[in-house]
């Protein structure tokens, strides 16, 4: 089981492939070294033989056959059992001088050298056959001369070299394969840990996390990233669960009311005016439900981030001016002074409709919760970074509750009669996150100041040419 | 008007047909894309209501095909909740308006009537520089508004609001439609801000005159007309 897995593992295959390439190049190197050393040694042998011949030729030229015989005798004496071989025979083949017996037979190779075998006594008295290379000459008076070189030791060295290389290569492959096994076992063990954890998570245990080994390597990094992803998923699932619960709660109540109203109507004991009033009330309720659905839809859209195709450079001042324009009559009717503090063009890259809706929600809230006589200000600024701000001098939100105010369906003062579905700030929050803007809520002393601060790095460099804020 | 409703949800389609018939319109129903295309191509309708998700042939392809044959009948797309980017895709495919489910019937009716009316006089609408309704007139170039010869001063936004109402005189304009046409907003603010804008406009247009022109249509929106 483990073996099959090991053989299948990517690390093992990679090690094998690497080993293959490495072995091939090592073998090429070995072959070259081997070839070169053989050639070198052969050449050395040939040169030695040639040098000897040259020396003998000079002796023969100076002193004739007698001198040649004397020199060979001397050398043979000095070279007994050594690498050089000499043999001078007379016309009948009898040995005159030299250090081997009997005129050898053999093959002449492409360099004109005779390859032959001769016998030599071992120290214990037995004879051994040794290979040699040499050259034969006919000297005057049909005497013949052989000058050669024992190559048995050289061949032994070559064999040794070959053996060493084969052994070394084999060892390399074995160590490489074992190393590959070890490496893949280690990798597999790390991955196995990650896989085990993900299986548990897939089975439903979202709280489980992958253990870090503390090695700070790429596996730890992978595990850390996966854990971060899991944190995000877990938070999303939790949020989703809460939203579902809230939807169930918030929609069940009006749906139940709707149903009982229709029930009453079906009893048929109402006069026409009563029936009409009841139907109108029912329709208002249904409209409120639709509005809630639409708000949820808008939040879902903002959160999905799937609207990127509709993004464009948006002038925050133009957005603010339009929202101001939309709410100014309402504010005036409620006795609230709505002011717009925006001048220069502040361009951010974003979704114009969602940005407008987010700002409208903020102004809506501010106008709704500020007492008559109060002030609400819409402010746009480009420095230090692009931002939209809505400040009021109403009751504000205590610091401890600000985070909670962003949650879906949460209404901090549910008993208040002001209409709303508790989704306004949730949408603002979703739009802020979509635009990677910071949503800050601060005390306006008194009142609330909500600010959407955009990341200057994510914005178009130069202010875009004048354009419509909305399309 | 003659309406073809292509909607696979039979209950919803039947309900819509009932409502439209009660409002005095002629309604045909198709329950899948292929039938719908055949009916739309073979008959003269004033307006089509097309669901985005249809068996057989989806709504977008249906309208694209229809437009390719040269049929210019106005189309209102209906789309279920959660389909992102729908509006843009729908309009790009040749739709004239778009409504997301769940919708109010009054909203649907108002939009259909607006589509048909636009179809009736498309060329004059674009060229007109003076809009008139009864004793009310507005010059789009000089931006001068008069009623019975008396000049009425309007803020830019009030002017735009009145212009939309006059272009759609005697039709119901829902709050959502006004937000789209006057503010270019495709969302509904939490509070009914439109009501306040209308009441301001009403102050200026109707206060000093015997016949009110701006009327509230209960549960639906507003309309510009002489008393019914």
Which properties best describe this structure?
heterodimer; A: 471 residues; alpha+beta; six-stranded antiparallel β-sheet; five-stranded mixed β-sheet; 9 helices; 55% helix; 17% strand; rod-shaped; disordered C terminus; B: 228 residues; alpha/beta; Rossmann fold; Arc Repressor Mutant, subunit A; five-stranded parallel β-sheet; four-stranded antiparallel β-sheet; 12 strands
Structural account:
The complex is a heterodimer of chains A (471) and B (228). Helices cover 55% and strands 17% of the residues of chain A. By secondary structure, chain A is of the alpha+beta class. In chain A, the strands form three sheets. Chain A has a six-stranded antiparallel β-sheet. In chain A, a hairpin with a 5-residue loop joins strand 4 and strand 5 (127-139). Residues 462-471 of chain A have low confidence and may be disordered. Chain B has two domains: 2-120, Response regulator (Rossmann fold, 3-Layer(aba) Sandwich); 123-224, Winged helix-like DNA-binding domain superfamily/Winged helix DNA-binding domain (Arc Repressor Mutant, subunit A, Orthogonal Bundle), CATH 1.10.10. Chain B is built from nine helices and twelve strands. Chain B has helices at residues 10-22, 33-42, 59-68, 86-92, 105-120, 122-127, 156-167, 175-183, 193-206; strands at residues 2-6, 26-30, 47-51, 75-79, 97-100, 130-133, 136-139, 144-147, 150-152, 173-174, 214-217, 221-224. In chain B, the strands form three sheets. Chain B has a five-stranded parallel β-sheet, sandwiched between helices. A four-stranded antiparallel β-sheet of chain B has the order 6-7-8-9, covered by helices on one side. In chain B, a hairpin with a 2-residue loop joins strand 8 (144-147) and strand 9 (150-152). In chain B, helix 2 (33-42) runs parallel beside helix 3. The model of chain B has no long low-confidence stretch (mean pLDDT 87). At the A-B interface, helix 5, helix 6 and helix 7 of A face helix 9 of B.
